[in-house]
Every structure is written in structure tokens, then in C-alpha cells.
Amino acid sequence: MSDLGRTWRGSRIWLLAALSAVICSLLPVGNALSSEEPTIFDMAPAMHARGVAIGPDGNLWFAATSSSSSRGAVGRVEPDGKVVEYGLQENSGARGIVGGPDGNLWFTEPEAGRIGRVAVGGGITTFPLPAKASRPIGIAAGADGNLWFTEFAADRIGRITTAGAITEFSLDRGSKPAGIVAGPDGNLWFTERGANRIGRITPAGQVTEFPLRGDNPRPVAITVGPDGNLWFAGEGTNRIGRITTTAAMTEFPVPILNGASEIVAGPDGNLWFSSYSQVGALTPNGRLARLACLKTNCNLPVLSLTAGTGGEMWAGTSTEYTGGGGGTYIITNLTQPGYLARFAPRSSGTELTSAPRPVERRRTRLEFSCESAGGCQGNLRLIRQRAVFPGESGVNYSVVPIGSGRYDLGAGERGSVLVKLNRKGAKLLAKRPLSAWALAETGGGDLETARLVTLRRPRS
To answer: Cβ atoms within 10 A of the Cβ of 414, count?
Structure first.
């Protein structure tokens, strides 16, 4: 996105939606993450939840932006499913939200240049920043008892006490800080979308920055994983990153084409991320454990994610409409609402090995195991994936199917799956060994698991 704090609109959004249609035709999509569809909660007309968090009262709270005006809202989903919204002032809009150490919820208002506080009973207090155009985006509760936030347009990290005293710390021009989280080391960790860096700031305000590899990955979201490391996702890359508190960095490829915009630690011990209309799970060792659409037909683009208190996940979503020319649009300038979705995270019931596989007569076998009590049946496909979003100037993407097979294993069974390469795969392999994604799809269309495998011709 050209500006994280602004509402999605225009040709770029059509491009993302059209790209998603290409992905849906090549990568596994279809049913929701479990055998049941997620529970959907309607928001008020034109409201879309850009941030979600569990409040001190145990309820799901959200920060919302209106798509028909600049007025936003904060609110909660009550145990009986009732959605309660508290409207904000005009020229506001809410983006990030987090539970504070004072028992309140704290949120950012990008359009108004304010930090807000809402009590669980609904009383709202706002605190204007020194520069109205600073566009605060992310917010986190620090170990020092203060709230810390990013100023996307002003290239600053801010700190606000629970009494409302504000201090700001400057970054390099063009840094565009976005996501922020309290690290296990007592510091705050944040993403710099404009500078392609991960940043760390101490409670005293000392900043250290760590550059990312790759061509313009545009990191946006960051979270603390169950392993005690920092995990981050970027809009311009098909990799999920991990950085330790000592700055050792590792990246893990995932079979997505339009980048990832959210990442949170899930209740199942995995890292959950969003990529347009899909959500995925990555284990702490970097193995992809799930990738699927949130809902059948893949028409709920995910704007925000958080883990619930009862083993569930929550997502704030936008609304997608079919457009002309076979593409789809995310429409955020009409009166249709966004939605809040609650779903049960389900990890893969299958496992693939990633050892190099020899190919003879356009055939190879991939080692496979079934960990699902109901057995494992579906399609196993091989695809080649090209670079994603190499720069702001345009999009360069390509997915090439190169082979397929069928798997049918009983619970606890191990075996091998025969995969036949198509002509394109055979032609590519004739030139050099191939690195390809092996995608295991269930009969319902979900991606059970995925592994990068190396294909090579047998040695003579």
C-alpha cells in the first residue's frame, strides 16, 4: 500500500484484487480453516476494523475507520455477539488498538493526529500530538508502563504516559515506522516500511536499526513469537522474517504473491499472518502449517488479526466486490460494512519432507506422512514461484504449475506420493535443478502443508 494509514482505494487495490484472483486459480484456496465457517459479526455501515485486540475485560475490541467519511469508531464484541461501537470525532479514524496497563484500551487516530483512550465502559479521552499530520499508526504497551506508538508520516516513535504526557523520538527522514510491539528484552521493536529496516528503541529513547535484505520488502507488522523472538511481515515480499533480540535474522519463504500485512502469535503456538484474502500459520521453526481463505469464496480481505482468550482467532475484514473485466475490488467508499470474524485455528494434518528428489521420466516421489485422525486425502501439486513486488514502480509476479499427483493415506501412515512433471517442468529441469513448492491440498481446497523441495535429474 502506498500509505498504511489511508483507506484502500484506487487502481492499486484493483491490482491487488486481480492478483488475488490469479493466486486463487493457482494456489489452494476454498474452504475455511476448519470444517465450519467462521462466525461473522457485522459492523456498522461503512466501518472497517483496522485494528483488533483483546481488552482487559476479555472482550474483542477494535479500532475502525469509516469508508464513507473520515469519522471512525472504537468498540467491542460482547459475549452474546452484540457489536457495540463508540463513534469518534469528525476527521478522525482509528487504526491501532491495545490494552493498556491502566485497564483501558489505547488507540491511534491517524487522520486526527491523536492518541485515544477508551474505558471498558465506553468513555473516550483523546490526546493531540504536537503535529496533527504525523499519522500515528501502530501502538503497543511497553514494559515501562507507558504506551508507545509509531508516527508514520512524521518519522518518529512516540511515548505517552497513562496520564497523557507525550514524548517523541526522531528517526531518519523517510523511515515511515508502522508496526510496534513490546519485546521480551524490555525494549520496543518496530518496523520501518519506508527504510526497509527493523528498529529497536529502549525505554530511554535510544534507537538501533537493522536493515533487511531483499528488494524493498516494506515491513509493516511485527509481533513476539512463542519462541521469544520478534517476527515480522512485509507488503513487498513472500517471506516471513524472524529477528532475535541480539539481531540474528532469518527469513522463511511462504507461497504467497501479494505480500503479508499482519502477523500475530496464535493460541496454538504458531505465527499467524494475513495475505489479502488468505490467512496462514507458520511454526516457530519456519514450517508453513496452514494457508487458506478465511471463508468460502475468498471474499473477506483481512485487515487485522489477533488471538483470543479461548483458543480462537479474530480478524477484522474488509468487503470485496466483483468488478469489471473479471477483477474484483475492495470498495471502501460506499456504505457497506466490514466484518469481524472469529475462527478456530487448525494446523496441518500432513507433513512433507524437503530432501532433494530425483526425477526420472518426468516422475518423482515425495515422502509424506499423515497426522490427521481422519486420514489425509487430496492433491499434491508442484509450482514455481517468481519474485513478488520488486519495487514501488510496479508488480512482477509469476506462478508456474510444473507437476501434480494424488495422496491418500490413513491416520498415522507414512508413504510416498507419485508426482508427474508436466512439459513445462520437464523443460525447466532439463536446464538445471529446480526449487519448487510442493503444495498438499485437501479435498476441500485448503492447503494442508507446503514445502520447498529441490528436484534434480539422476546422476549418470
So the answer is: 12
Q: Return d(Cα 272, Cα 278) in angstroms, integer.
A: 11
User: For 239, phi and psi rounded to 5 degrees?
Assistant: -135, 145
Q: Is 186 left (phi over 0), alpha (psi -120 to 50) or beta?
A: left
pLDDT band, very low/low/confident/very high, at 289 (cuts 50, 70, 90) = confident
Identity of the amino acid at 193 = R
Length of the chain: 460
Kindly report, residue by residue over 348-399, the tens digit of the pLDDT: 667 777 677 889 999 999 988 888 888 888 899 999 876 544 444 444 456 7
Cell of 353: 519432507
Tell me the whole-structure pTM to 2 decimals. 0.87
- φ, ψ at 144 (rounded to 5°): -85, 5
Amino acid residing at 223: T
> Around 65, how many Cα atoms within 13 Å sit in the side-chain half-sphere?
27
Interatomic CA distance for residues 376 and 291, integer angstroms: 16
Contact 168, 148 (CB under 8 A): no
User: Which amino acid, one-letter code, is at 370?
Assistant: C
* Phi, psi of 11, rounded to the nearest 5 degrees: -65, -30
* Structure confidence by residue, pLDDT tens digits, 198-253: 999 999 999 999 999 888 899 999 999 999 999 999 998 889 999 999 999 999 98
The predicted-structure confidence for 119-165, as pLDDT tens digits, reads as follows: 999 999 999 999 999 999 999 999 999 999 999 999 999 999 999 99
